[in-house]
Amino acid sequence: xxxxxxxxxxxxxxxxxxxxxxxxxxxxxxxxxxxxxxxxxxxxxxxxxxxxxxxxxxxxxxxxxxxxxxxxxxxxxxxxxxxxxxxxxxxxxxxxxxxxxxxxxxxxxxxxxxxxxxxxxxxxxxxxxxxxxxxxxxxxxxxxxxxxxxxxxxxxxxxx
Length: 160
Prior knowledge:
Elements: E1 17-20, H1 37-47, E2 51-57, E3 62-63, E4 73-74, H2 82-93, E5 97-101, H3 107-112, H4 139-155
Parallel strand pairs: 1-2, 2-5, 3-4
């Protein structure tokens, strides 16, 4: 193991961040329309953020970007690629871009693939259908991992 310092995206130089929480859903109407780097970059510079964390898929399970993964649930409200705007603004300022990605808790995936959901133990009280995905199901290989790789490859996301 080397004694050389590791280059990281975290540490004392990254103290104050902006967490933009969205949790896209099926009722959204104009996602991404105002995520323009010419407006985002000055606002981020003014607030002095060291990093940005934007939402890309919340608990409802809908993406706020045009995912190409076959099992993706894209919010019908996505009108413009907001991640492209956030990435351009953060690159301009030399800031890391993180994405809030709700893995495991995924209401849309549970509706499409109830066989991926966690199975309740026998004798458990009746409950609404489970919205939590079983990590032993195809969920990881069919949706979660492909989407994380898509975010890294297409938008150079620095963390989740």
